[in-house]
Amino acid sequence: MSSLDICASIRICKNCSLLFHGPKHFQSPATVSLATHRRRQIHLRRPPFAPLSVTHFSSDTEQDNFLPEDSELYEEQALSDEEEEAEDFDVLELERQARQVVEEYSDSLSHELKIDDEVSTQKETRGKQKRRTDTSSNIPDHLLPRVAIVGRPNVGKSALFNRLVGGNKAIVVDEPGVTRDRLYGRSFWGVYEFMLVDTGGVLTISKHQKDVMEELAVSTTIGMEGIPLACREAAVARMPSMVERQAAFAVEESSVIIFVVDGQAGLTAADVEIGDWLRKNYSHKHIVLAVNKCESPRKGMLQATDFWALGFSPLPISAISGTGTGDLLDSVCSQMEKIEGIEDPDIEEYVPAIAIVGRPNVGKSSILNALVGEDRTIVSPVSGTTRDAIDTEFTGPDGQKFRLIDTAGIRKKAAVASSGSTTEALSVNRAFRAVRRSDVVALVIEAMACITEQDFKIAEQIEREGKGCLIVVNKWDTIPSKNQQTTLHYDEDVREKLRILSWAPIVYSTAIQGHSVDKITVVATMIEKERTRRLSTATLNQVVHEAVAFKAPPRTRGGKRGRVYYCTQAAIRPPTFVFFVNDATLFPETYRRYMEKQLRSSAGFTGTPIRLLWRSRRKMEREGKEASMRTQVNSSPVNRKLAVVT
After folding, report:
1. Could you give the angle at which helices 537-550 and 589-603 cross, rounded to 10 degrees?
2. Are 461 and 115 in contact (CB under 8 A)?
3. What separation in angstroms does the CA of 111 have from each of 116, 459, 465?
4. Mean per-residue pLDDT for 223-233?
5. Structure pTM?
6. Strands, sheet with 468-474, edge to edge from the N-terminal-most edge strand
7. Which of these, 197, 294, 312, 316, could form a disulfide with 304 (CB 3.0-4.6 Å)?
8. pLDDT, the chain, mean
9. Residue 538: pLDDT over 50
10. Rounded Cα gap, residues 496 and 631, in angstroms
11. How many CB atoms are located within 10 Å of the residue 222 CB?
């Protein structure tokens, strides 16, 4: 064997050299002859990224066009890498596997982030939910007739609301004054569908202000440390009138009123005053008197006899067990006109949901009221004013529809546990559920307080849920001596403390005065478009190719390097990309963050998290073999059975 034969058998470039440190000329053919398996083990350095524009991935063109600066030879992974790159890739199969990877990731993430619901309530309303799905129409909420539920505190209004809407939407706790704002929900009975409105307990002037505060358990200390004592007392004194105003507004807009009383407590002076108020001011509306907490049908008739003095025909019901609710709905729908649905339901567009979350007293309810242009929710310095998650439909100046969700303030878990308040714990649970069912989250922070540890924890939850996000710096007017550099310095501080939301835009507003509040919906619209944007496979692979060419994955100590074979976008909301690589363990977390930054700098995706899922090729092959084996195992008994039959 001559020296020319040896040189011809081993591909070599000008920047590569053999691991043979002999003389410049070969002394004897026998001393330098290489066995066939040794020649195959000599492995010249290949680029870490295979061509992505074709279905067949070959390593020959890579070696001819790629000339690395350092020309080390690695003998450990040559045979396996050559066999991997010599195979053909089925793009359709990779796309199918990408969808499978996303489904597996979604299932695991949903199981990890699952929030426990009240199982008993779900069991009670399971049949009603199914019936609702079959009979609900496509009528918009604002066209449906409204039915208001009113009464004094702690008579079971929220429990009745949950029973009629078929869910667990309102917070139900055995203490007065839990519900404060108006809470809306769809309900139906037969061919009729209407919008049910839950309200707070209507307070009367017969009680002293101090007694009312003790009855409603309104705190004057929690979350109000920085507020003067005079302002605290004034805010607390206005709370009952604010709750009553919300209830009065619900009665004004409703055509049917359900007046709820407590059958076990009997007739009270507060019931008499509310009945007189309804009879004097709303006698032209259909009023149904529901005597709640009548668990036994026999005793219910006796308990309801005391309430004939109110001037209405009483109906004994039980919101917990559902007794008598059918007769109640018959009476409600007797004076109601049927609303026909839209003829062409295909024109109905998707309405994105925007959840407004943050710590207590940062101005979430003020932002909602400024956006809708009315006192939709109660705004007060009293900590924990908002309890339920309040959904409100809103149409922007450009005609874009939104569903705004106002939530309760989220305090630290330890603070909530130490307070021992079941209502606050359920309110925080509702807030996190609102984040889950939203599309875009507006994280509100207070300008003077800046970023706290609790803000960071809320930001972590938003990122884990995969929701679009914008950071709203509220109460910007409280920053003294502002100039052009103030915003830049504040941006740097927010980015430094909320690195997990480095992709989220920042909006500065003063909700109490209505300044720059409209920017929230404008930015939210842009974020929703980014969440639903798709990149073509050719564009995506070009971006990844350039990123890998600029910075290759690091090598391991054994000389192994990660290689990207194919990349595709498998899902939206949030945008999810699947990378098919030789071994996912060869891509450290630092390199994955680098790839995410390159995707953002090249393709955008402002205001939304993106998911990068890495799929090892060896795992793909192993799963493919297991699937084929399962197919063979499952098919063999069938064949034998068919043979027996024939």
Report:
1. 130
2. no
3. 11, 20, 12
4. 55
5. 0.76
6. 390-395, 401-406, 353-358, 440-446, 468-474, 506-508
7. 316
8. 78
9. yes
10. 53
11. 15
